[in-house]
Amino acid sequence: MHLVKPVLLLVLFSLFLPSCTAFSEPDVFAGSDSSLGSPFGFTTSFYPPRRPPREEMEAMRKRMAFAGRPADDPPYSTALDLGVRWERPTHPVLDWNFVQRDREAIMRGVYDWTVPDNFLRNVPRELNLVVTLNAGDRVFLPGTWQFRAPQAKAAFLEFVRRAVERYNGDGVNDMPGLRSPVKYWQIENEPESHVDRRGPGRPQPNLDWKGFADLVRGAHETIKRADGTARVLSGGVVSPPPGLRDTIIEKFWIPLIQELNGKYIDIFDFHWFDDSYRDSYHTYKRIREALDRNGFAHTEIWITETGASSKEGERRQAVELVKRFVYPLSYGVKKVFWAWALVEGWPPFDCKSMFEYTGLVYDGNCPGDPGYGTRKLGYYTYRLMTRKLSGISLANVRTLSAGEGNVFAFRFPKADGDIYVVWHDTTREGDTAPFELKGVEDGEYIVTEAVPSATEGRQVFPSRDVPFPVKKLKASGRTLLLELPSSPVYVEKAR
Question: Integer distance in angstroms from the first to the last C-alpha of the chain?
Fold first, then answer.
């Protein structure tokens, strides 16, 4: 998310984002161990009830009265219908102050797990959890990642130990009713966005990489002692304005990577909300090169936050969605999570932030909103994408065109036959571009547009047969001639 944001306020308010009840549709996925290999995630696919009035929200927030019950029944059935396999909950992020809310609780060693329990108990086994552990700014010296006192650091690490033990599913001191054990833990979120407010002028990014390296070392060692099978993610690289990008990478992340020297991070995370999905590759490349030079050559890179707004049109968002998943998966990213979130809404809910519009289900609030619970075109687009690309081999992706003539084309191997994803990079509806897909087998192919043939999702509801444009073409001479629309297409050999 963009620098700078009120993280705690976001978490507390967003617990009451609206949702709809999922209508019955076929092909809800069943869980299996293969879900670990799926690249499709969400931040967050929790499906909250309709948001109450602001006064009631404020009162409930002060009481920490968060029920954690999704509006869909059974819980998370909408996420499973979409094909989501990785859930990064932000309702709530596991903040220390949710569990030990004041100094007295810390001094007495009292832990109240009600808030995270209420949410995590509803997560089904089919969803793999990535949970973020946040210490909160109150325990650090201003503008740094240095604890105010050694006792504060020790108390935080004890909270980390207890959290991992409670949710690791090993049968010892586990939360009652836990269905999806947590095996992926993230240390803080966008650490450079915990800004330094000291001095004149605008707040500056927190570039205390030394302090953060010490935090990562301590948290990693604590997590591994509590669960040797757990994996630890770096705090996600913030998606900054272009002017700050070099500063953040050069003065925080690369020194941090050098300092950790191949240890304490199992998975590296960066976030991407820049208008250009294409520029994400340059950030990935710089991070990948730094990791490879400093002992992290086998460390995967994930994107746990990316998204696009529907404010300029649902169709435009849906087209962006496919590109923001497929393009990173083509160049080496292993998991991509859509954000923010399944249901739209962003505190203070004033319809100004892009994050008011990045969800795939309407919340019924902003101007032009067709109503609470209405699914956008992006909802159906995400669902088709997970079905078409289920079982792809990311180790053997082949890039056929990397933007030449504004055409992107990728071949994803699957056990039952390759699938191609191709698009013409244009925002003008109705534009087409010719493209020769070479090296294919001769014969008949099915070409399916990635976005339904509608301008709004409400035109699809409640149809069970979502109207994705489909055509059949024949390849000869190992070449398939395509006329690419503005929407990405899936190309498969007819069976």
Answer: 43
pTM comes to 0.92
* Tens-digit pLDDT string for the chain (495 aa): 544 443 333 333 333 333 332 323 333 333 345 689 999 999 999 998 888 887 887 888 788 888 788 999 999 999 999 999 999 998 678 999 999 999 999 999 999 999 999 999 999 999 999 999 999 988 999 999 999 999 999 999 999 999 999 999 999 999 999 999 999 999 999 999 888 777 777 788 999 999 999 999 999 999 999 999 999 999 999 998 888 899 999 999 999 999 999 999 999 999 999 999 999 999 999 999 999 999 999 999 999 999 999 999 999 999 999 999 999 999 999 999 999 899 998 888 889 999 999 999 999 999 999 999 999 999 999 999 999 999 999 999 999 999 999 999 999 999 999 999 999 998 677 788 999 999 999 999 999 999 999 999 999 977 777 899 999 999 999 999 999 998 999 999 998
Residue 340, preceding peptide bond in cis (omega within 30° of 0): yes
Strands (DSSP E) found in 398-452 = 398-402, 407-412, 419-424, 433-438, 443-449
Domains, the chain, ranges and CATH?
A: 7-392 (3.20.20.80), 398-493 (2.60.40.1180)
Between CA 356 and CA 7 the distance in angstroms is 15
Q: Give me the residues paired with residue 90 across strands.
A: none
Q: Which of 55, 160, 79 is nearest to 116 (CA)?
A: 160
Pairing of strands 419-424, 489-493: antiparallel
| Spatial distance between the Cα atoms of 209 and 290, rounded to a whole number of angstroms | 15
| DSSP states along 229-252 | T-EEEPPPBP---HHHHHHHIIII
The token pair at 304 is: 């746990």
451 near 319, Cβ under 8 Å? yes
DSSP letter for each residue of 30-71: PP-GGGGG--EEES----PPPPPPHHHHHHHHHHT------S
Helices and strands, number each (H, E), in the chain: 13, 17
Q: How far apart are CA 70 and CA 91, in angstroms?
A: 10
Tokens of 354: 């892009």
412: nearest Cα among 436, 392, 382, 390: 392
Taking the CB of residue 353, how many other CB atoms lie within 10 A of it? 19
